[in-house]
Amino acid sequence: MAHQSKFTRFGAAAVAILFAGACADHQPTAPGSLAPRPQAPRFNVMSTVPGEVWLCPLGPAGSYSYSISVTIPANWTNPQPPGYSGTYTAAQIAAAQGNQVLDKGAAFVLSNPGTCSRIFHVTASINYNYGAGTQDAIRVVTITETGAPAGTSLDHIVSTWGNGGDVTTLGPTANVQVSMNDFHGAVAAYWSVPTGCTLTIGYWKNHAGLGRGNQADAVTPLLPVWLGTANGLKSTNVTTNVQAVSILGYDDDASNGIVKLKGQLLGAKLNIKAGAFGGAAAATILSSDGFLATHNEADWSGLSDTQQAQVLAWKDALDSWNNGLVGPPHCD
């Protein structure tokens, strides 16, 4: 990273106003139906304080725990033009380490709602000349979320540093790395969402407002639901409670695994639309949708043993998720 500007600092009050405004003005959108991945908040890192790293906990109210570590690579390359690179000596690394501060220690707790907090900064500019230009000590800062309020799940992290744009890291990955130096700042925003709870396909079948003893219709307001990608060649668009009950009410002793997969997939998507966080099931849902876009019940007997085993594995994974054995707990 080249020396682009004089090493300057804002006052503490100005920083607090800047970041409080950033968090307030760029709140992420509400979670979506499957995997809520809003890209906001977007921060202009060049308007942040050079030589500082800030952290913003976003989402449900409560206390969030983090850890931070900072390393100065002995060998480094700046991929941005003009492509500076170099090697630090042990003495240079020690000198740079002597001019940096973990503002909240190596482990700390932040509360939300609240403003973004500075978690690391350098106290002096340290420059080394590698012939191609003056370079200052590059630091790799690793931030990890180690705890969050009960009933929440980490959806994604938005980080930005240097001259680059936003980088989104999807949960459940809880750590990010940002590169910074005396002349560039960095920001990481952790977005959490309510975890919610799940219900079995039996619940949804019996709460569709149909037949003797059925409860009020809780299914129709959540429709339509695609089983398979939208408008896929063999995808099923579930648009009525009658259609939903037919899919949910499969015979567990039946031999057709695609019928079973559709039932559990519909149950999972109804749970997500009802508010359960789908992160733990997202990969299975994605794979199942891809398969069901090109296969229907009539294709079961033509599948290889390996393909049939895969379909049943997806069904079992969604069954476990719908029953609260993995991911969000089962609703009481």
Descriptive notes:
This protein has 2 domains: 12-194, no CATH class; 201-322, no CATH class. Helix content is 25%, strand content 27%. The protein is built from 7 helices and 16 strands. It has a 6-stranded mixed sheet with strand order 5-7-1-14-11-12. A hairpin with a 4-residue loop joins strand 8 (127-129) and strand 9. Helix 5 packs parallel to helix 7 and helix 6 crosses helix 7. It is elongated, with a radius of gyration of 25 Å. Residues 1-47 and 129-133 have low confidence and may be disordered.
Short description:
This protein has 332 residues and is α+β, with helices and mostly antiparallel strands. It has helices spanning 12-25, 90-97, 201-206, 241-248, 257-273, 282-292, 305-322, and strands at 52-58, 62-71, 75-77, 85-87, 100-102, 107-112, 117-122, 127-129, 134-136, 139-147, 152-161, 167-170, 175-180, 186-194, 225-227, 236-238. The termini are far apart.
Structure characteristics:
332 residues, 6-stranded mixed β-sheet, 2 domains, disordered N terminus, alpha+beta, 4-stranded antiparallel β-sheet
Map the helices and strands.
Blueprint: H1 12-25, E1 52-58, E2 62-71, E3 75-77, E4 85-87, H2 90-97, E5 100-102, E6 107-112, E7 117-122, E8 127-129, E9 134-136, E10 139-147, E11 152-161, E12 167-170, E13 175-180, E14 186-194, H3 201-206, E15 225-227, E16 236-238, H4 241-248, H5 257-273, H6 282-292, H7 305-322
Parallel strand pairs: 1-14
Antiparallel strand pairs: 1-7, 2-6, 2-10, 3-4, 5-7, 8-9, 10-13, 11-12, 11-14, 15-16
Helix pairs in contact: 5-7, 6-7
